[in-house]
Design brief:
The complex is a heterotrimer of chains A (332), B (504) and C (152).
Chain A: H1 2-24, H2 30-35, E1 41-45, H3 52-68, E2 72-76, H4 83-91, E3 98-103, E4 122-132, E5 134-138, H5 146-155, E6 162-163, H6 170-181, E7 191-192, H7 197-206, H8 216-224, E8 228-233, H9 248-252, E9 259-267, H10 272-287, H11 289-298, E10 302-306, H12 307-328
Parallel strand pairs in A: 1-2, 1-3, 6-7
Antiparallel strand pairs in A: 3-9, 4-9, 4-10, 5-8
Helix pairs in contact in A: 3-11, 6-12
Chain B: H1 2-11, H2 14-32, H3 38-49, H4 54-71, H5 73-79, H6 91-99, H7 103-136, H8 141-157, H9 163-177, H10 195-198, H11 203-221, H12 241-247, H13 249-264, H14 270-284, H15 296-320, H16 326-337, H17 344-349, H18 351-379, H19 387-406, H20 410-427, H21 433-455, H22 467-491
Chain C: E1 2-3, H1 5-24, H2 38-60, E2 66-67, H3 75-98, H4 100-114, H5 119-140
Helix pairs in contact in C: 1-2, 3-4, 4-5
The chains are: A alpha/beta (332), B mainly alpha (504), C mainly alpha (152).
Chain lengths: 332, 504, 152
């Protein structure tokens, strides 16, 4: 182990040298930015092949390829709740040839002390998607509305358990923030960490937990199969696929809204010309038929914000999440 | 009946069939290449399928994954490099057969029983999908915990003439699985502040290191120009099929059943199915001492099992939209994209689509025979390449494969570290296979243990409160105690039990 | 190399103790009694148990700490082993700045020559394999192999 550590250390040093050599090599100059893109572009995804983020990246990648006339290769860089992938995006050269699809986790990880990266380390280009959290329970659960469930939570703290992502993940914060906004103790529904929404939902149906506050597209197949029902959605408007599920605000008056978002970003210091070209291309994609059809087909929510608007959105998300994480005791 | 007719019309079209043929070739190539997994092959198909009709899109994915899982056996047998993790369980055994000059027999068995296993999994998918999916949905973390422990127990039965050294290997694997952020508390563990280590240690680069790199290192220290090239004795792949089928039908059937069931359980896939089946095969074999020396029995059972698992994984995917493995996770996304929303309604509203999927499954497994035959014929020429040229080429393939897993040079670092570790372990009689199993199952054991404890507020009795959990728990404990019980039984002076058919 | 079982056992025991002590400091899930520490501590116990068993077994059959394998007496074998490891390290360090093609060529060429191939065969095979791998993985399977200075 000691030997392996020193070997790893040596390699680390060697890799760092290699990275430095790259960073030292001629980067982006205005002249190069004008001709961009001249070679294939890499779109880094911090999550595994097959997931929702990967699917979103692949459709954006193939549409971007048509817009820019250069291949866009989707590259998965997985691990550590997104730390590895987001770090790779931030550390890449800001020459427009390495982009990334950042996810909401980048607004959470730094509060936990897992990465020093914040929105300041990226160039936000365009927010492309937002999936609000819902409150899912078993179909045969004895609660017709969220109010019934809340009353039961308040009178029996600790009875209900929730799952759907890891400790301190986005859905954990969703329910904690919701309970807090309704005057209940966030700890009255203990969180059972799971490796994503699918195992959490499986456990919900199997009777292991009682609440899964994941997004609607993640729960969709089980809702349609009549195994799970959604009591409310933590968004300003109902989801077009399940318009009968009320918003949290309509149901309880709480203004709490939260969701998982995904947006195209570049490393900090991307030349403005490239950013402008990219924004134009992404806006066209967002408004196009293919993107809407794809996202609609998967039940993914869409939301657009470019450049500065995206940064404002990101900052607000960051602050909201930080506040909840402090309440739950996850933030350092 | 009308729906079945429509389904045939949907599938038997030149565009669907040609897509399936292309996907076969692609799947064979990806599966045979270490580091490129069946899941990656499917993910690469996603942007392509976006521009296809639904049925050809599904045809491409089913065919590609079936071929890839079979093709993983080819480099495992010829070079001791499992092409996909699903072949790792019996890579040593298959390689031993090749060194004994039985490459044709071993690969022929892989091909034939892979196809049969795939057909069996399909049959179960057709006959029992709704029922089996219902059962799979009863599994909570308590049940998965016992299942994962049972899986770990397999590690002790695999390999290892010295059981303590087998356990050492298993614990090393479990220790490796604890590295990173992926733990119930979501905190960095044994990462030494390194970003890459936060992502944990991927088991595919570790597997490439353990099996392939350590093999290259062994070849390098021995003077390989003196080492003999394995001889290929036979010409025909097919000639033993009848005999093997008659002789080993119980093993094959057991592999099929175990594979389908494990495949149908969300979160456990072809990889785990192959390990469990290999261990079961050895445990119940009449000649367990032959295992590890190039004996076809365990290969038949586990190669049947991993292909049967593919069909099984579609059970919860089609019925509830819950992925049975990482491949169906991608497929479900594509189904939604094509408006073929999985769920019970799919069986009611669009039965012709379901039947079309079934027909594609059957066709894909039949296509496996000619395509697999061609792939084996081509691949075994590799053995004619002089080893001083072959080994460096293998090393480059390993490097690229380890890189491709996470598109990061860190994978190559992991590969190198585990190559050296595997080399040292095997020099000292510690088998590497149990360590791989430990890495694969470690997080499953941990996650399900800790989450169960949280749900039960720390009450250990909860592990026996649910009926299926209690059954699995008692089975696990019986398996652990079986050597002791057998020992006591024999001590009492009664007639010795027949070795193979004893407990659990 | 064959280490005596007692030596392996001792190393495993030391590893187990280190893991156990370092795992004890890991935090629990907030509000729970269980967390990141439980599992590594259990594994450390198992590893330590095995280490102890191996130590006892090894001491009973003590024949010196190390029994060298036949290849270990050959300096050439040591040379080939360390050269192979160095070549992999070279790939890890140099692939990013120099690119896949030249680095893969060097690794292949050096290793074939090292294992006794003729230099021109080595050069031919190395060039061909590097090109085929770069083409098939980099261009067809979209594996983002480092481009570096030289690409197709």
């Amino acid at each position: 182990m000691v030997l392996r550590r020193s070997v790893l250390g040596l390699l680390r040093a060697a890799t760092c040298l290699a990275v430095l050599a790259i960073a030292g090599s001629p980067g982006s100059s205005p002249a190069q930015a004008a001709g961009w893109p001249e070679r294939p572009i890499t779109l880094l995804v911090p999550w595994a092949a097959g997931g929702g983020t990967d699917a979103t990246a692949r459709i954006i990648g193939s549409l971007l390829e048509k817009e820019l006339g250069q291949p866009v290769n989707v590259v998965n860089r997985v691990g550590g709740n997104g730390v590895v992938g987001h770090t790779a995006i931030a550390r890449a050269a800001p020459d427009g040839y390495t982009l990334g699809l950042a996810t909401v986790e980048i607004a959470m990880l730094h509060w936990q002390g897992l990465t020093p990266l914040t929105h300041k380390d990226f160039t936000p280009i365009a927010l492309m998607n937002l999936d609000p959290a819902g409150v899912q329970v078993r179909q045969d659960a004895p609660y017709a509305t969220l109010k019934d469930l809340l009353a039961d939570i308040k009178s029996n703290p600790g009875k209900h358990k929730a799952s759907g992502t890891g400790q301190g993940g986005i859905w954990h914060l969703a329910i904690a923030g919701m309970l807090d906004s309704l005057g209940a103790d966030p700890a009255s529904v203990p969180w059972v960490p799971s490796n994503g929404a699918a195992p959490g939902l499986q456990d919900l149906v199997a009777g292991g937990v009682t609440i899964v506050p994941c997004s609607i597209p993640e729960a969709r197949s089980l809702i349609e199969a009549g195994r799970v029902k959604s009591l409310a959605i933590m968004d300003e408007a109902p989801n077009p696929i399940f318009p009968t599920v009320p918003t949290l605000k309509a149901e309880t008056g709480s203004p709490w809204a939260i969701g998982a978002w995904r947006g195209v970003v570049a490393p900090k210091g991307l030349p403005d010309e490239i950013a402008a070209k990219l924004t134009a291309a992404l806006e066209k994609i967002y408004n196009g038929k293919d993107y809407k059809e794809f996202m609609g087909g998967r039940g993914f929510g869409i939301r657009y914000a470019a450049g500065g608007d995206f940064r404002t959105f990101w900052e607000k998300s960051d602050a909201d999440l930080g506040a909840v994480m402090k309440k739950v005791g996850i933030a350092k | 009946m009308n729906a079945i007719g429509q389904a045939f019309e949907l599938v038997l079209r030149w565009d669907v069939l040609s897509v399936m043929v292309l996907a076969s070739a692609f799947g064979l190539f990806v599966g045979a290449t270490p580091g490129l997994t069946a899941t990656m092959a499917i993910a690469l198909l996603v942007p392509i399928t976006f521009f296809m009709e639904p049925i050809p899109a599904i045809g491409a994915m089913v065919t590609c994954s079936a071929m890839a899982i079979f093709a993983g056996d080819i480099p495992a047998a010829l070079l001791r490099i499992p092409g996909t993790p699903a072949s790792a369980a019996y890579a040593d055994e298959a390689y031993a057969m090749t060194r004994n000059g039985q490459a044709e027999l071993g690969l022929g068995a892989n091909l034939f029983f892979s196809a049969l296993g795939g057909l069996f999994g399909t049959a179960i998918l057709i006959v029992a999908a709704p029922w089996l999916a219902e059962a799979a949905l009863k599994f909570s973390s308590f049940e998965y915990f016992w299942l994962a422990l049972l899986g770990l127990t397999c590690g002790v039965f695999i390999g290892a003439t010295n059981p303590v050294k087998g356990l050492v290997s298993l614990f090393i694997g479990l220790l490796v699985s604890t590295v990173g952020l992926n733990n119930p508390a979501g905190v960095p563990r044994f990462t030494f502040g390194d970003v890459d280590l936060m992502g944990g240690i991927e088991f595919i680069p570790a597997m490439i290191g353990f099996f392939a790199v350590s093999e290259v290192l062994r070849a390098v220290v021995a003077d390989i120009r003196l080492a003999g090239v394995p001889q290929l004795i036979r010409g025909s792949l097919f000639q033993d099929w009848g005999r093997l089928f008659v002789q080993y039908w119980p093993q094959q059937l057991r592999g099929n059943i175990v594979g389908t069931i494990i495949g149908a359980l969300p979160g456990a896939g072809a990889d785990i199915a192959a390990w469990v089946s290999y261990a079961v095969s050895k445990r119940f074999s009449k000649t367990p001492e032959k295992f590890g020396t190039g004996h076809v029995e365990g290969i038949i059972e586990s190669t049947s099992s991993n292909n049967a698992a593919l069909g099984g994984a579609w059970v919860p995917a089609l019925v509830f939209g819950i992925p049975g493995d990482s491949i169906t996770a991608v497929v479900i996304g594509v189904l939604y994209m094509k408006g073929m929303n999985p769920g019970p309604t799919m069986f009611l509203n669009n039965p012709q689509n379901i039947y079309a999927v079934f027909i594609i499954f059957i066709l894909a497994n039949l296509l496996m025979i000619p395509f697999g035959w061609a792939a084996i014929k081509g691949a075994k020429e590799i053995l004619r390449v002089p080893r001083h040229i072959l080994m460096p080429c293998i090393l480059i393939f390993c490097i690229v494969g380890a890189f491709a897993v996470n598109n990061s040079v860190f994978g190559v670092v992991v590969m190198l570290a585990f190559g050296v570790l595997g080399f040292v372990m095997e020099e000292n009689g510690i088998p590497v296979a149990p360590a791989i199993l430990g890495i694969v199952l470690g997080s499953m054991v941990e996650e399900n243990f800790v989450t169960s404890m949280i749900k039960a507020n720390g009450d250990l009795a909860a592990f026996f409160e649910r009926p299926i959990a209690a059954g699995l728990g008692i089975l696990t404990i019986l398996v652990w105690l079986s050597p002791l019980i057998l020992f006591l039984w024999r001590r009492r002076g009664s007639a010795p039990l027949p070795g193979g058919s004893s407990a659990p | 190399m064959r280490l005596n079982d007692a030596v392996i056992g001792g190393l495993l025991l030391a590893l187990a103790v280190a893991v156990f002590l370092s795992a004890r400091t890991l935090p629990d899930v907030p509000g729970q009694r269980y967390g990141a520490a439980v599992f590594p501590m259990l594994v450390a116990c198992g590893l330590g148990g095995c280490g102890l068993a191996l130590t006892l077994a090894g001491l009973r059959h003590w024949e010196g700490a190390v029994t060298p394998a036949p290849w270990m007496r050959s300096p050439a074998a040591w040379g080939r082993l360390s050269a192979t490891l160095l070549l992999i390290l070279f790939y890890i360090a140099a692939a990013e700045p120099l690119g896949f093609l030249p680095v893969a060529f060097v690794v292949l060429f050096a290793l074939i020559v090292l294992l006794g191939g003729r230099w021109w065969v080595a050069a031919l095979v190395a060039a061909l394999v590097a090109l085929v791998v770069a083409k098939s993985f980099g261009s067809l399977l979209l594996v983002p192999l480092p481009r570096g200075l030289l690409w197709l």
